[in-house]
C-alpha cells in the first residue's frame, strides 16, 4: 500500500477540494485567508503533498460550502 500522502485516494481528495474551491469562486490565497493558514498550506493540500485530517475537511466544508460526509462517500465509492 502506498503512503497515504501519495495514494490515488489522496490525489482524488485533493482534486475534489480544488473543484470545490473553484466552484466557490475563490483563489488559493482567498481560501488561505478564510482558513487562517498560509497560501502554501493550500498549495500543498491541493497538490496532494499534504494530508487532510477530518477536522480540516470539516472546516474546508464550512468555508467552501460542501458537506464533508458527501466527499467521504464519493471517495469511498471510487
Could you name the key traits of this structure?
78 residues; Cro/C1-type_HTH; Lambda_DNA-bd_dom_sf; mainly alpha; 5 helices; Helix-turn-helix transcriptional regulator; single chain
Description:
The chain is mainly α. It is built from five helices and no strands. Helix 2 crosses helix 3. It comes from Bradyrhizobium aeschynomenes.
Write the layout of secondary structure elements.
Layout (H helix, E strand, L loop, with lengths): L7 H16 L4 H8 L3 H8 L7 H11 L3 H10 L1
InterPro entries: Cro/C1-type_HTH (IPR001387), Lambda_DNA-bd_dom_sf (IPR010982)
Pfam families: HTH_31
Protein name: Helix-turn-helix transcriptional regulator
Beta strand %: under 5%
Low-confidence stretches: none
Overall helicity: 55-70%
Helical element count? 5
Taken from the alpha-carbon principal axes, the silhouette is: globular
Averaging pLDDT over every residue, what do you get? 92
Strand and helix order: HHHHH
Q: How many individual β-strands?
A: 0
Whole-number radius of gyration?
12 Å
Label the structural class. Answer: mainly alpha
Largest sheet: none
Distance between the termini: 16 Å
InterPro entries: Cro/C1-type_HTH, Lambda_DNA-bd_dom_sf
Domain HTH cro/C1-type: 17-71
Pfam family, one: HTH_31
Organism: Bradyrhizobium aeschynomenes
Amino acid at each position: 500500500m502506498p503512503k497515504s500522502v501519495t495514494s490515488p485516494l489522496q490525489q482524488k481528495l485533493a482534486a475534489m477540494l480544488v473543484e470545490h474551491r473553484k466552484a466557490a469562486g475563490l483563489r488559493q490565497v482567498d481560501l488561505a485567508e478564510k482558513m487562517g493558514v498560509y497560501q502554501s498550506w493550500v498549495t500543498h493540500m491541493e497538490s496532494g503533498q499534504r494530508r487532510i485530517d477530518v477536522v480540516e475537511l470539516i472546516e474546508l466544508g464550512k468555508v467552501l460550502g460542501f458537506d464533508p460526509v458527501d466527499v467521504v462517500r464519493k471517495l469511498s465509492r471510487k
